Amino acid sequence: SSSSSSSSFCCRPSMPVAAAAAAAPTAILPKNRPKFIFQAEEAVRRRKNGGGRLRSISRLWLLLVRSWRQNCRDGFVNLVRAVSCIGLAKVYSAVLGGTSAGEQSPAVLPEKISLITFGIISMAQLSLIKTLDLFSRTVARERARGQYNAWEYVLSKVVAELPLDAAYSGLYAWVLHANTIFHTPRSTFIGLYALLASVSASLGLAVGAAAPSGESALVAGPSLMVIYMVLGVLNPSGAPPSGEKKESCPGVLLPVKTASPIKWAVESLLCAEFRGLHFSRDLKSTPRMGAIALVRTGDQALEALGLEDQTTGRCVRAMGTLLVSHILVAIGALALAKPRYVELDSDHQGSVKGS
Q1: For the segment 16-75, what is each residue's pLDDT rounded down to a tens digit?
Q2: Which end of the chain is more exposed for a tag (fewer CB within 10 A), N or C?
C-alpha cells in the first residue's frame, strides 16, 4: 500500500504545474508532426491576423531600450574607444600639427592636409567597424518569428548607435582642435567630424544588413572603406590645369567615388579650413613640392587641389544624402533577408502526417 500510495503521489501533478498547464496555449505540437512545419504555420498565422502583436511604436521602443542597455553594459569598450580617440588626436597633433610654423605660414599646408586626411580615415574606419555586426543571430530568430519589422530594427540602431559614434568622433575633433592651430571654428570642425562618423556608421549598418553573416560583414566592410579611401583622398600633385581635361579616376569608378564619405569629408574640411585664408610670404616657409608650392592664399591652395568650385555646404548635403541612402539600403536589405515560409495545404499536411 505504501508503494502504491507513493507512486500515486509521484504521478499526481502539483497545483502550480496544473495551473500552468491550464494556462498554456491551445496550440500543441502533434506527436508525429515535424517541428519546422509547426513553426512555419505559426509565422504565417501571425502575418495573417496580426493578433497579440504590439504596435510599431511599442516595438520600436523595446528595441531602443535593448540597444541602449547593451551600450551601457559595454562600459569597458566605450572607455577604450574614448581613450583611443584622445590618443589618436594627441599623436596626430604632435606629429602633423605644424604649430611651430604658425597659422599664417604656407609651410603648414602639407601638414594640415595630411592631418585632416588621416583623421578622417581613422574616424571613418572606427565608426564603420562598430556597426558591422549589429544584426546578430538573435535578430534572425526574432524576425523568423515575425516579432519586428526591418525598419524597426534599423531605425532603433540608427537612434542608439549613430549619436554614440558621432560623440566619439566629436571628442577626437575637440582634442585635435585644442592641440593644433586651425582656421576652422571649433563647432564647425566638430560637427563635420560627427557627420562623417554618422555616415560611416550608417554604411556599416547597410553592409551588415546585406551580408549573409557577421563574419562576412567584417571582411567586406573594411575592404569597401579602403576603396573609398583610395578614391576619396586628394592627389597631392594637384588637379590638372584648367585647359586639360584629365580625370585620374576611371569612368567606371566615378559612381563609387561619389559614394565615398571620405571624399566629401576631406573636401568639406579643406574648404572650411583654407577658404579666405591669407599667408605671409616667406621663402623659408614655402612648401618645397606638390600642388601648393607657390600659393599665397587658401583659395589658391584649393584651386591647385581642384576644389575652387567646391563648398562646405555642398559637401554636407552630399554626406546627408549618403546617410539617408545607407539607412534605406539597410532597411531594404534586411527586409529581403527575412525568412519566408510557404503555407501548406491539407494534402501536404496529410502526407507529412502519414510519413
Answers
A1: 444 444 444 444 444 444 554 445 455 445 554 544 445 777 777 888 888 888 888 888
A2: N
**Cα-Cα end-to-end distance for the chain:** 45
Amino acid in the structure at residue 14: S
C-alpha–C-alpha distance, residues 231 and 35, integer Å? 51
Q: What are 134-141's contacts with CB under 8 Å, separation 24+?
A: 134/161, 134/204, 134/205, 134/208, 135/208, 135/209, 135/214, 135/334, 136/214, 140/339
What are the grid coordinates assigned to 284, written together? Answer: 623659408
pLDDT, tens digit, for every residue of 176-228? 999 888 888 999 999 999 999 999 999 999 998 888 888 888 999 999 999 99
**Is 256 within 8 Å of 285 (Cβ atoms)?**
no
Cell of 340: 519566408
- In whole angstroms, give the CA distance from residue 344 to residue 355: 15
pTM greater than the 0.85 cutoff: no
Residue 208 in grid coordinates: 551588415
Tell me which residue of 296, 301, 240, 309 sits closest to 273, measured CA to CA. 301
Q: In the 8-state DSSP scheme, what is residue 54? A: P
Work out the angle between the directed axes of helices 137-144 and 150-179 (0-180°, nearest 10).
150
